[in-house]
Amino acid sequence: MDISVRAALRVSEIVAENSISVACQRLRSERCDVAVLSLASLDSNGEEAMAALFRAAPHLPIIVRHRTGGIDDVINLTRQGAFHVLLGELEPESLADAVGRAVRQSHLFQQQAAETAPWRHFLIGQSRAMLQICEIIQLVAAKRCTILIAGETGTGKEVIAKAIHAASNRAAQSLVSVNCTALPATLIESELFGHAKGAFTGAISSRIGRFEQAHRGSLFLDEIGDLPLEAQAKILRVLQEQEFQRVGSSETVRVDVRVMAASNVDLEQAVRERRFREDLYYRLNVVPIHLPPLRDRRDDIPLLLQHFLDKIRAAENAEPKQISAEAVEWLQQLPWPGNIRQLEHAVQMAFALSGDRRMLGPNDFLARRPPSSERPGSVAMSPAPLIQLPQEGLNFDEVVGSFELSLLNQALTASGGNKARAADLLKIKRTTLLAKMKSLALAVPGGDRTELGD
Questions:
Q1: Is the pLDDT score of 383 beyond 80?
Q2: How many C-beta atoms surround the C-beta of residue 420 within 10 A?
Q3: Of 51, 165, 375, 437, whose CB is crowded by the most CB atoms within 10 A?
């Protein structure tokens, strides 16, 4: 392809192949937005070539250049699935226009496919940050390159690893997850690489390690920054050589493993402090993925809330519940230092303590409100008022009584009806609880009278 055509296309990369078989092999392992097929350079006919390309990449737009063809060829090739057919001498502008339209169609299809792909259900959110992460996963899932996932605790690093594995051609094999923090220092090597019988006291039988368990699949090393330097060196060798020896054995074991690692600490800082090997850091950080904290993707909170409600309802086989618009707006204002994990726990608490009520309001989440001083220099965030004072005023005793009744019901539900325990939850005396129950049952319109016995 000449320089004028390349300039007109303005695409990131153009790869030329003179063989259909080689081109098909490349298409099976690499993503491509559009193929331009020149019939003049082929030994086979256009229909055979297009059929081979479609077998390698079923949804790939194919533009056919047929220098000596006529209208009948255009009709025939279009029926065979060609996106566009160019006749006569090559005009850069015409080719650029056709390629541009084909690329747009290809991107639209890829976006729709990603939204409905099985791996997409792991990732909840439509914020710019999440869409960028989805795009990265789509690009790298089929590759073997290592991936380093960074982010604060609770942002969902293991979920990202599951999505990458599910999107890869290794999805049918195992994803083995290892919490490096939980590995005992004396057993790290045995856990990762296995051991032979009699290798040490207590090794009464041979055992394969996590790398071997993940053969032909994926291995996720969570909190890899907590590994000692000696273990880091051995992992580096496995990444480089794809082989290792079990503890107490001289036999070399070869593995085909796609490694993903995660850390909630700054590994670059750990490298500077000589707590993490520099060569291992660069070997892991081939494709970096940074997960933003929940406070930086507040637009995803409504979708996350609904996801957690559906998840809890399915697990508990309970009636569906909803979160009021006022509660959603209030929850979006909070800083969530524990990120998605903290949000899920808040929904679990609200679901459990709301009893039979179908609508969850701000009151149901008060006990889980994150402190405003979770990190130095943070700005206190005032939640929206729980009750808006109307212009015409309101009945103070009735509103306060309703609020007290809600708290009493939540405490009694949580305690299973045990009034002494309910009083402990509310940090009041049992006699005060009984008095309030009696008062509210008499004073609140429509309230049920409550028996005072345990």
A1: no
A2: 11
A3: 165
- Domains in the chain (CATH in brackets) are 3-115 (3.40.50.2300), 120-292 (3.40.50.300), 299-386 (1.10.8.60), 393-454 (1.10.10.60)
Q: How many CA atoms lie within 13 A of 266 on its CB side?
A: 4
pLDDT tens sequence across 177-214: 999 998 888 889 999 999 998 888 877 888 899 999 99
Closest to 261 in 3D by CA, of 230, 212, 225: 225
Cα dihedral 267, 273, 277, 282 in deg (nearest 10): 40
Whether this model's pTM surpasses 0.90: no
What are the pLDDT digits (tens) for 58-110? 778 888 888 777 888 788 888 778 888 888 877 888 888 888 888 887 767 66
Q: Are 289 and 149 in contact (CB under 8 A)?
A: yes
Region 127-148: mean pLDDT is 89
Contact 178, 217 (CB under 8 A): no
Whole-angstrom distance, CA of residue 291 vs CA of residue 156:
8
- Secondary structure of residue 198 in the 3-state scheme: coil
Amino acid residing at 400: V
CB neighbour list of residue 182: distance below 8 Å, 6 or more residues apart: none
Q: Which residues of 63-101 are buried (b: 16+ CB within 10 A; e: fewer)?
A: bbbbeebeeebbeebeebbbbbbbeeeeebeebbebbee
Q: What would the DSSP string read from start to end of 73-95?
A: HHHHHHHTT-SEEEESS--HHHH
Amino acid 304: pLDDT: 94
**Which residues is 219 bridged to in the sheet?**
176, 259
